[in-house]
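Hey, quick one: can you model this chain's 3D structure?
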Amino acid sequence: MIKTVCLNSATKEFTNECPAADISDLRVIEHNVVWADVSDPTSQDFLDLAEEFGFHPLSIEDCRGEHQRPKVKEYQGYYFIVLYEAVLTGPKDDLELRELNIFLGTNYLVTVHSRPIRAIETAGKLWHEWTDRAEHGSGLLSYLLIDAIVDDYLPLLDVLSERMDDLEDQIFGDFQPESMQSIFRIKKQL
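Sure thing. Here's the predicted structure for all 190 residues.
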């Protein structure tokens, strides 16, 4: 599903829920910045992205594949970025990495993901609040998104550090066999 939002940086007005078929028309209007967020992408969504934005087939292929390494790759007219949002899930707060693919062009940002990404909601909210900085275009939007992802890393690292401290106490204090299982689970998550 493709959800599209457009901001005219001159008027500072948003157009929400634009049809995907209108993306090309919106992109050619001066001062417009278009954000297309694609969640649970289908084969048709990838075809639409390639047609609407002219993305290189290799970047579409990387986007379709899961478990890409984090990277920034420059293509003609845009950057393709892969990064991960880290979240704790389940009753044992297991570490889960959720892949986010980003296409960053002069006046657009396209995000593609198969799992919910909290940072997308955070960045969208801030983008609507920061219209006084609208002249920074898609650069501002990409900053807000990446910053939201990175900001969540530190609290998560604190939780993992506390777990490791607890395991150290168990191993070097009163050793319990289930401590080894916890060590292997954390190691696997990392």
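One thing worth noting: DSSP finds seven helices and seven strands in the chain.
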